[in-house]
């Protein structure tokens, strides 16, 4: 069992690890080429860009859970229907979201805090990202579907090719050709094109082809996918919602330098978030399949391994973060003022990294085992708590309230995770159907 588990986990972890490395390197290139304005602009635009990735991931993970649950329960027809309808949702969702962002991108960026010189910079980045919006949604949505079919290594290769090419193209476009934010956006899109090409090749194979009849929309199937998709969508998009609140308050209490400092801190903690999300997403097929079969012994074992890995990596990451906090501003090319903020706030954000090892796998565990209410409470409760703390704490302690918002939220969520995990119910009977 352990070998089988690691066969799912390690490719997923490596995939997300590469994504995390890319996000850090991307910030380094932009920071060195443009300084604080470039980091601030890309950070302000990111919540809109992240909608694209989060939509694809939410649909892909939601469908993957329903496929595994129904396969575990022995209902292969409903499992095939769920996978086929995922492609329908990816297509319609990508068209709708891309159109909305094209039409309303500039006013949305203004609402997110892009003013004066930051608005044209952020809008440039968004415009070129949207050129490949449909590609990115399909690429991010098809990877979890491939992983769910047992092709974890292939899915890792698809993600890895996109991430590695992204880093190379970032260096070429941003540093060599001096295309700045336009270059960073184009590098992201072209990297996702390569991921999508490998995904299409996978589903073009005869044994992996989706029947056209299964792609035809079915209301009950779509509802079951979207119901589960709310949690992985929120889990993926939550950091971007946090960025919106943090940017606005950092700008208000600390100026552009504080926004730049938070951009660096956000890059670093996102690395850990992606790593533990890789653990959660990698374990999803086995957790869902065990849940669908009613195999409580396997479910409990996979759950214990998932949380052990998540908490272990969270603690290690937090320790390393504290050790290297003085070096980070040098790599990102921040101003001395932003560098001072980074060094000061790093210990608080290290606590966030440690707690991510518990809270993020917990969300993945709950939606993988069809405990949708609990996973949604954790995901959207995090958004509500962030909105509350980010506006209340600074009223009393100024900019410190901004830095301590995310750690405070994670402490509260950690308590709820422990409470929910202690309130477990027996695994569902294998004879049950998960699409009503």
UniProtKB/TrEMBL annotation:
Pfam families: MatE. It is a multi-pass membrane protein. The keyword Transport applies. The chain crosses the membrane at residues 7-25, 45-67, 87-105, 125-146, 153-177, 183-204, 225-248, 260-280, 301-323, 338-356, 377-397, 403-421. GO terms for cellular component: plasma membrane. Its main location: membrane. It is found in: Cell membrane. The keyword Transport applies. Keywords: Cell membrane, Membrane, Transmembrane, Transmembrane helix, Transport. GO terms for molecular function: antiporter activity; xenobiotic transmembrane transporter activity. This is MATE family efflux transporter. It comes from Parablautia intestinalis.
């Amino acid at each position: 069992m352990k070998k089988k588990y690691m066969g799912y986990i390690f490719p997923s972890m490596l995939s997300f690890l590469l994504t995390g490395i890319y996000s850090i390197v991307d910030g380094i290139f932009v920071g060195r080429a443009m300084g604080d304005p470039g980091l601030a602009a890309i950070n302000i635009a990111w919540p809109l860009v992240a909608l694209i990735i989060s939509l694809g991931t939410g649909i892909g993970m939601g469908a993957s859970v329903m496929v595994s649950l129904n396969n575990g329960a022995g209902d292969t027809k409903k499992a095939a229907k769920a996978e086929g309808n995922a492609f329908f949702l990816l297509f319609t969702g990508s068209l709708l979201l891309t159109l909305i962002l094209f039409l309303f991108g500039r006013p949305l960026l203004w609402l997110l805090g892009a003013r004066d010189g930051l608005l044209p910079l952020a809008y440039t980045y968004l415009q070129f990202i949207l050129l490949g919006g449909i590609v990115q949604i399909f690429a991010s949505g098809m990877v979890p579907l491939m992983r769910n079919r047992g092709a974890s290594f292939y899915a890792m290769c698809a993600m890895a090719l996109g991430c590695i090419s992204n880093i190379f193209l970032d260096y070429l476009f941003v540093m060599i050709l001096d295309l700045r934010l336009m270059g960073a956006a184009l590098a992201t899109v072209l990297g996702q094109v390569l991921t999508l090409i490998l995904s299409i090749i996978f589903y073009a194979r005869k044994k992996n082809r989706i029947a056209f009849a299964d792609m035809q929309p079915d209301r009950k199937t779509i509802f079951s996918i979207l119901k589960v998709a709310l949690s992985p969508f929120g889990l993926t998009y939550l950091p971007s919602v946090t960025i919106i609140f943090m940017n606005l308050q950092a700008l208000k209490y600390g100026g552009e330098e504080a926004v730049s400092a938070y951009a660096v801190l956000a890059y670093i903690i996102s690395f850990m978030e992606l790593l533990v999300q890789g653990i959660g997403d990698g374990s999803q097929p086995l957790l869902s399949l065990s849940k669908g079969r009613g195999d409580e012994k396997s479910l409990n074992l996979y759950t214990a391994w998932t949380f052990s890995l998540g908490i272990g990596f969270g603690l290690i990451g937090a320790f390393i973060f504290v050790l290297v906090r003085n070096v980070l501003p040098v790599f990102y090319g921040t101003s001395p003022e932003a560098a001072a903020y980074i060094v000061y706030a790093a210990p608080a954000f290290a606590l966030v990294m440690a707690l991510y090892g518990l809270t993020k796998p917990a969300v993945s565990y709950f939606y993988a085992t069809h405990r949708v209410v609990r996973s949604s409470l954790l995901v959207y409760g995090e958004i509500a708590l962030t909105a509350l703390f980010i506006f209340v704490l600074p009223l009393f302690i100024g900019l410190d309230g901004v830095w301590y918002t995310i750690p405070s939220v994670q402490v509260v969520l950690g308590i709820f995770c422990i409470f929910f995990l202690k309130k477990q119910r027996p695994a569902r009977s294998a004879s049950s159907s998960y699409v009503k």
